[in-house]
Every structure is written in C-alpha cells, then in structure tokens.
Amino acid sequence: MTRVSRLFAAIAITLPLPLLLQPTVAIAQQASAKAVKSVEKTDPWIYRGTDIPHDPEWVFGTLGNGLRYAVRRNNVPPGQVSIRIAVDAGSMYESEQERGYAHLLEHLLFRQSKYLGVAEAIPTWQRLGATFGSDTNAQTSATQTVYKLDLPNASATTLNESFRLLSGMVREPVLSQPNINTEVPIVLAEKRERGGASMRIGDATRETFFAGQPLATRAPIGTDESLRGATAVSVQAFHDRWYRPDNTVIVAVGDADPMVLAGEIERWFADWKGKGKKTEAPDFGKPQAPAGSDPANPVGETRVLVEPDLPRNINYAFLRPYKQVIDNIEYNRGIMLDAISQAIINRKLEERARAGGSYLFAQVGQDKVSRSADGTFVNVTPLGSDWKAALKDVRAVIADAIANPPTQQEIDRELAEYDVAFASSVEERTVMAGSKLADDVVNAVDIREAVATPEVVLQVFRDMRARFTPEAIRDHTRALFAGAVIRGVMNTPVTGEADADAFRLALAEPVAATASSRDAAAAISFADLPPIGKPGTVLKSAPIGVMQVEWVQLSNGVRALLWPNNAEPGRVNLQVRFGSGYRGFTAQDAPYIQLGQMALIGSGIGPLGQDALDRISTGRKMGFDFRVDDASFQFSAETRAADLADQLYLFAAKLGMPRWDPNPVLRAKAASELQYESYATTPSSLMQRDLDWLLSNRDPRFETPSPKVLAGVTPEGFRKVWEPLLKQGPIEVLMFGDFKREDGIAALEKTFGALPPREAIPADAASRKVAFPAPQATPTVLHHRGDPNQAAAVIAWPSGGGVAGLSESRQLEILVQLFNNRLFDAMREHAGASYAPQVMSEWPIDMPDGGRIMAFAQLEPEAVPTFFAEASRIAKEIAATPPTTDELARITEPLKQKISRASTGNSFWLYQLEGASYDPQRAEKLRSLLNDYTQTTPQKMQELAKKYLTSREGWRLAIIPAGQELAKPAK
Q1: Where is the Peptidase M16 C-terminal domain (predicted)?
Q2: CA 334/CA 479 separation, integer angstroms
Q3: Which domain holds residue 198?
Q4: Interval 597-654: pLDDT, tens
C-alpha cells in the first residue's frame, strides 16, 4: 500500500537540496592539524602485488602498530561520513568452546565501553543524528566482524567524538559478567527468531557442503551451550587474541578532507597495542572427495531433509579448494569469462522454465565462500513430486553447455547486458553513495583483493571482447563444473520420497546433453513495433512551484510531472500511476491480485512475449516493476536518456495493447501454491501471510490465496479481471532525472499521448474502503507449525488517511519512534524477551481512512502476555505523562538527518509528488514536511497518544505454536 512510512525506505541519495535543508559544509583540513605521517603515497597496501591501476581518490595508510586504513572524500549524501571498522575475526576464529563469541562480542561492544556507560551507546548515537540499526550497526560473518557508522551532518566536533567513541568500543569494551549476562539472552532471542525450518535447511546445507572444514560447524550465531557458558575471562581472552591493531582495517568515506579522516584515525588508534604475540588465522581446510570416489564424477556427501511446510528444493555444489589469488587484471578477465558462462546457462534454464519445464526455478552461480571453498552452486525448485525429472532437466542443460560451445550471438547478448551495467557505473560514479564505497573496501579486505574504478572495470571488459569466443566460454564452463567433490542437499515435504542414497545416485547418473537449440533468433527492434496510436500533443503546462517541476497535460487527458536535472548523471526515474488499485477488485477477484503482481508484466505486450521483452531490452538500461497500491496501480523503472522513449513505449503499450500469454500466469500460480504452506513455518511468515488481511477486517482483497482458492484460477480468469482494469482511471507519468525536456515531451506525446481516452473507474470501486477490525475482548490467535519456542505478537490501533492529514501523519512518525524506543528498552534491554521489537505507522495518502499504528515483536510463547502488557503500558504512559525534551531530541535529530539525506535524491521528490498533477495539495504539503517531522512538543505527543493509542483498546494478535494455548497474563 502507498503509505507515508515508505519515506523511510531505502532511497537513492544523490541530488542537491535547495528546498528543505542546505547541505553541511565539507569538513576542511584544519590549518592547525598536525601532519599525517602514516599515508602511503606509493605502493599502498591494498594494491601491493597487483597491476590493477590505483584509484587516485582513495588515500591509504598504515599506522606503526600495523593498523591499516583507507579514506576518501565523497559528498553523497552531503554532510555524511561513513566509517567502517573491520576486524579480521569471525566465527571460524573461535574454538569449540567459543562458538558464538565473535557475534556476542559485537553485541557487547555496544553494551559498555571506555567512553560509554551501560546502554548509553544507542541514545548517544541518536543525539548525534544516527539511527541505531541502519546508521549504526555491526555484522559478524565467518571471517570478519564489521562495525558500521554513517554519521550524518558531520562536523569536526562530531567526527572527533565519533572516532573517540568507536575507539573505546573496539579497544576497551567492558566485558564484565553482568554485561555478558544481560547480552546473552538478547543473542539467544536473536537465535530463536532466526530458527525454524529454513534455518535447519541452511545449517544442513552448510554442514554438508563444507563437511570436514571449520565452516561446517561455525555459524556466527553460536550454540546455546557455549553462549550460556560465556564468562568475563573467556570473552576477554577472545577479544585480546583477535582485536588488535594489526588485525584491523578502518575505512572512512565522506564529506571531509581525507587528511582530516586519516588524522582522526591516527589520533585515536595510533597508540593501540596488541596483547602478546599475534595469533595466526586458523586453517580453514579444503573440500575433499571421499576415498575411492570417481575422479570424473566425485559425488560425495548428500543429505535429504523432510520439512513438510517447505517446498521441494535441491541444492548441489561443485567444490574446489579455495586459493588465495593475486588480484590482477588477468585474474579479473577470467572472472568476466566465468560470469558470461553462467549468464548463458541461467538464461537457458529460465527459458526452459518459462516454456513449462519440470521445474519452477533453477539457477547456477559461482562463489568463493568464506575463504574456505571455490564452488559452483546449482539451485533447483521442482514443480511437482518428480524431483528426479527436474534435476535431470537442469543437469541436461548444464551438460549441453559443457559439451557444446554457445553461439557468438548468445555471447554477444550477455556481453551487451554487462556492457550497459559497467557503462552505467561510470556514468553514475559521481553519485555513488559513500557508504557503498566504504563497504566495497571492507569486502575487498575480507577476500584479500583490491578495488578498481568503474572506468578500469569497463576498460578491462571492453579490451578483452575478442577473448569472448564460443570455445573460451565452453572451456570456462567446463572449469566451473569441475571440482574436488560434488555435494548436495535436498528438501522434500514427504517422508520416504527420497533419501541420501537415491539423491547421490541421481547426481552421479550420466546425463545426456539436452537438445536445446542454439540461440539464432533475430534481434528485435523498437522501430519494428506498431505505434501506440496517433501521437497526442501538449494541451497545458505550468510549473507546480516545487523545485523546477513542471505539470503537463496531454490532449488525451494524460497528465505528467517532469523534472529534467543533471544531478544524477545517466539516471532517469520513471513512474506511471493509473487506475484504481485495490479499490478496483471485488472479493471474487481477490486471488488474481497477487498473481497480477507476479505475472501481469510477463504476460507481454503487443507482439512481445516475456522472452521477447527480455531480448528487446538487451544492452539497454530498462526496467518494468509493477505494484498494486491503495488507489492506483504503478509501473516504475530506472532508465537513462538514451532509452527513455523506448521505456515509455513499453509502459504505454502495456495499457494500450496488452498481451495475455498464459504461461506466466500458470507459473505464478504454481509458485503461489508452493509458497503457501511455507508461511506456516514461523510466526513472522504467518504474520506476513495474514496480518494485512486481519487488520483489514478480513477483507478478501488482502487475503493470501490458498491452494484451494488457487485451484480455481485460470489464465482466462486472469485476463477477465485485469483487462478492464488496464483501461480505467486517470494516468499520471512522473519523469525525474537526466534527460532533455524536449525529448521527454516528444516521447510522452508518441506513447502515453497516443492512448485512447480512459474509461471511468466504476462508482462502486471508488467507494470501497478498508475497515479496521472491531475491538475485541481477547486476542486473535493463530498457530504456526514451527519451533515450539517461537511466537509473535501484534497490537494495533486505527489512525487515518488522506492528504489533508499529512501533517498529523508526520507527527505520528515521531510518536511511533518514541514508542519504539521505549518498547525496545522494555522488551530487549530489560526483559531480553525479543531481539528487535518494532513500532510503525501507516497512513494511506490516496484514501481518507485505512491507516494504522502497529507494534510487534517475535518472542517466546510465554512472553506474549508481557508484550501486550508492556505495549499497553507504554501507550498509556505517553498519554498520561509527556516525554522529556531530551527523549524527543533523540528522535527528531535522526529524523531530521534521515530526511536531509533522503531528500537529496530524485526518488524522494518523486514519491512526495505522486498524484500532485491531480491534487495540488500534495505539492503544497511539501512546504511543511521538515517541520512536521522534526518540530514537536511533549504536549503534542501526549495529545496524539490520547487520540490514537488510548481512545480505544488496541487490537491484538498472538501467533503461537500449534498445540499450545495462549499463556495467561501474570498477576
């Protein structure tokens, strides 16, 4: 649904901001700053031993204690500095008794450290404008632990303070027994929430694929036994062994002079000394075939699991020993040949699935996993119970690729896709987010490789085009499907359907190459496609008063908002809103809503089926996303000026000359049937299946269709529902980005301007509303079939909707963040009952009602009543007693910074102005946006809490294990 909370989704951050906030002035190098002594002006550490050209924008250095760093200026978004501290220690660095310590230590660093008292880290970062969980975060893998900070609105003072706090966290965390005793239940809650059938399959896959290697038994989450046995002495020993300067890399990228960033690293980390002699990294082992296996077909360990609520799935891998490479240009040429080889096979697999094969989905991919193995992995989802036929079909496609070289036309098609991707990276390099640049270096450090500029990548790729021959691709394909050992894991929902021996025999059985034809299809050109109709003309145009956005009305009534700008080079954001959205469906139409989101685009346009749509966009930057919102349907894509007219053609042709191929519908139906049972495996997936439906007072339009309902779905029924919807309702086109106005207008006139007049939305559709469930004396209870220690709980209140109430909806965002902080503190910090409870507000912009405020958490079944009690207590507490100004500041400052960063992107403005060509209020409401989100009073929060949180009892949902009853509240 189109709701205000989508403001805080991931948004491209690239465009200057003249309206809401002025960007922070970049932190200049201070004249009084002492010279940075550790910079490596020649032969920087990340490029040592490689012939990859240095990226001149990076500055590298090594401190006297061995700590390495990389710093760089970047102003995307303005004012932000992204800091990463990577410690070369993950779960494979643990002993048997330390399993889970690397991840536990990640938690403990946020608990208390040299400059931060107990539980002070989160509020401290919030006061600096950083949001915990997104701007401030950490992650632990098998080989590395990374601490992340995206510091908004960075100044010399906040930058210095941030490095000081981070240095205290990494160098001197307080690893006391009370802190460990507090944090272990939180880690165990995280482990519990990740559990279930999917986790069991993931664990089994890791144990099987990497049998005999540490990776097999070293999941970062650890074991209950080792975590509960953690002591201050044992955790401190792990920290002392691995957290040392010569095991650490710091990356800082942002709107600051690189020498200032390097100076801060020197200031806070140069005197750090490791304890004792450095411990070498453990041996990660290598995959080996069983003794006596066939070297030509070395099938080793196989495993079959029975998970009744998950669909059949087959994973198998060709595993080779991991070898530390010299990351040079020739090595990267080999990677590119490997990539084209995989792309050709994956396209063949997809084409076979689309044509009605024995599998729903299949894909191959090569990966070097945790410095433990170099593997080629094959994933297959069979359509029915005949898993052997699905596996054989996939293996036959692979066998064909091994035996026979592809055509040059097949190769050229994939080369065109890669070329446009690499060329787009060059065009967009000036707007690449600093956080991504920082993450790229951290990832390179982890795999012991270098980094290259987009220009170098493109040049290397184009210079080697003559090497992409059919024979070279076949040779690389053969190498990808050779290995020391082949291992596999399969899931089946039916006991007795397969076992490890049968699976092993199926993998070892010789298979004939499929007789698939070589791709020799003629290229498809937009010039050969029929016109949409007679081009229209611009009837009216005028500025809307926001930025330089222009409102345009075409002669057939279609309206558009245009904003040509060059702040995001090479990028154009497109969105088309039309029709009635959810309002257009009746209860009988409901099963076709989900299928439409999955299959409407794939069913084609005019003369183009799904394969032809793929082919016509080869080598182009085009997309075709579709979604159903509250009161409209939406197409969207990110394209570029050269492809703009053709992208608009595809969108308009879907409305003006839709095609109704049956196969995409049948495939979407099969996927929905397979997926349905898996919803019951965990509380969170059951909530995903049913929560919208329940909160909409069991409106059939929001119900996930069951296999019984799907059984009645047909391609003919699909067309009957969707064909009239494509003809109804007004159309609005939003076009923001790097294009010329005259080109955009001309493309609009030939495409959307050529559509016939639109039919009116039926009156009964316009009147359909979304109702909130009536108050209830007891919670609604659902039962899942997952682990017996898993549960979830939701409490919700109705709010509102519509443009007129936008200002209040923005204030509600402050209220829910206030609620969220208190619930987080109550359920995680104090009770240890939930890893990540959340509170959110949804406010439908296109409808006058249907909004809601929700709080939810995953927890143990016995803690469900505690959640309801705490959520109700917090709601009443806010309504009874206004929050403190400091508590609000911890919310409004991160919100201010988040808006500041989001509003530097075209996507932000496009979302904010959706519908403004028909409703000028939307543009007018932009004037108060910043104040609405960041300026409030304790009394205003109290007033909103009374209005929305305590004026009626919250609706409650409990999701508990099958066979259990809802626990009674504690007296």
Answers
A1: 231-416, 715-891
A2: 11
A3: 55-269
A4: 999 999 999 999 999 999 999 999 999 999 999 999 999 999 999 999 999 999 999 9
